[in-house]
Design brief:
The protein is an alpha+beta fold. The chain is built from eight helices and four strands. It starts with a strand and ends in a 5-residue tail after the last helix.
């Protein structure tokens, strides 16, 4: 058994047995492994109240197909929706669910990582962020510093400190590291960080978009 929800560029599947959350890009849904990578439980019976959106669906690009189009709505449309749209554009432009940080501009990377943080942590805490988006672990703090965040930056610094320095970010190695940190997912060392995150009211979406607007370079 598992619970399925959608994110900007794919789906998240939470295993009912061990609570691990796996992120699957849209392009890989048809060929995904039908079992939890941590405990091996079957994903045969998926439940969801949210319909899946295929890659490139209009829902993800409601406010524009290009970044300038999206940024033109800043101030008139909820910043959170615009940031999701920007993230979808970046993922589409690079043809993959997790673009290589080396290929992104500093402003593009900052926006992508901020959006990824919000999506993952709001869905399943920092454990889910490091599980599913751990390739950006050491880009998170610099990204928030770049856009001028203070409150989320403080929380992220603490979360990354718990995750540790010089961790092998290869997916399987990362999961083994997180399993050790969480006593095989029985405990959550990021509980306090998560609580502070959920109570934080800093407009980080707008900070990211304003920074992108001031430092935009296509691609």
């Amino acid at each position: 058994m598992a619970k399925l929800t959608t994110v900007a560029d794919g789906i998240c599947i939470q295993c009912d047995s061990c609570q691990h959350v796996a992120r699957i890009p849209n392009a890989a849904i048809a060929t995904m492994d039908p079992q939890c990578p941590v405990c091996g439980a079957s994903y045969e019976d998926l439940t969801s109240d949210i319909p899946l959106h295929p890659a490139g669906s209009s829902e993800l690009f409601e406010h524009g197909q290009t970044i300038p189009e999206v940024l033109s709505s800043l101030g008139n449309v909820e910043a959170a929706l615009l940031l999701i749209n920007v993230q979808a554009i970046i993922a589409r432009n690079f043809g993959e669910v997790s673009p290589d940080p080396k290929l992104l501009t500093p402003a593009g990377l900052a926006c992508y990582v901020a959006a990824e943080m919000l999506s993952q942590v709001n869905n399943g805490g920092f454990q889910q962020f490091f599980d599913n988006s751990g390739e950006y672990s050491y880009h998170l703090v610099p990204a928030l510093e770049l856009i001028g965040s203070r409150e989320y930056l403080d929380i992220a610094k603490r979360a990354v400190d718990i995750f540790g320095n010089n961790v092998n970010l290869d997916y399987k190695a990362r999961l083994e590291h997180i399993a050790a940190l969480t006593d095989e997912y029985e405990n959550d060392p990021w509980e306090e960080c998560n609580s502070d995150f959920y109570n934080c009211e800093e407009p980080v979406e707008e900070l990211a978009l304003r920074y992108l607007q001031e430092n935009f370079a296509e691609g």
